[in-house]
Amino acid sequence: MPSKMQVEPKPSEFEVEDKPWKYIGYPVYADFLASDNDLLVFRRFGVLGARVALGMQDELVSLETKLRALDKQHASVYGPAVNNGSLRDDIPERAALLAQIGDALPKYTEQAYIFDEAEDLVSLVERETTPLRSAVDGSLRLRTWWGWLDKGRTDNVAEHDVGVISYYSDDRIDLFVSVAIVFVGIAMLIIPIWILRCLSDQDMMLVVITVFILVFLGVLSFFMATKPFEALGATAAYAAVLMVFLQVGSEN
Questions:
Q1: Are residues 154 and 242 in the same domain?
Q2: How many Cβ atoms are within 10 Å of 86's Cβ, its own excluded?
Q3: Domain check: are 221 and 155 in the same one?
């Protein structure tokens, strides 16, 4: 008769808390880091990478010097009769040297970067965010607002992480940021139009236009990830629209 499979008992909550290194460890920690892109943050060891790259660079320079000397020797009038135009029939010494360079060069190109020591963390899944989204992420109160809570993922965390780990929906936060930008943009167009409609003094209308142009430029810089020239171009177009209403108001 087939033997019954022995079911391994689960460790008790006391055993897990007493020996987390045994029952949790790096497997669970790795699962936790992989559960969200924002958690995939690691040190890039920029200074160590630079030191290793410098060592590899020195090794490649030495190999390059040997290769050039070998080429010069076999291209000399007094050198041996060697076919320098063939790779398949190359001399063993140069072929071995090229193979050594071929092994060292890819390793060097992977290390050929120098990072700022003060910013030695890198996210494996980077994405461009607007300043408004960065402001939300930078505020613990805004980032952990219950409206962003992802109940499905939060309810499925491991037993020992219940009440400690919570997941929040990036899609909801991005939607909020997009809606906020749309509403601010509409307000920046509608409000000055109605204000200019109620004014008759040209100087006051210019003051209103100047204020809204500056506010619009500030909104672009804070809410959207725009480059300086893009922000100036959009502001110029916005100013042109307001100046049209100024001209219409002066004709009336």
A1: yes
A2: 9
A3: yes
On whether both 177 and 107 belong to a single domain, the answer is no
198 and 100 in a single domain? The answer is no
Distance of CA 88 to the CA centre of its chain: 45
Q: Is the pTM of this model over 0.85?
A: no
Same domain for 185 and 139: yes
For residues 190 and 252, state if they share a domain: yes
- The torsion angles phi and psi of 144, rounded to 5 degrees, stand at -105, 25
Which of the residue ranges 59-63, 148-152, 156-160, 199-203 has the most confident prediction, judged by mean pLDDT?
59-63
Answer yes or no: do 88 and 56 share one domain: yes
Same domain, 136 and 251: yes
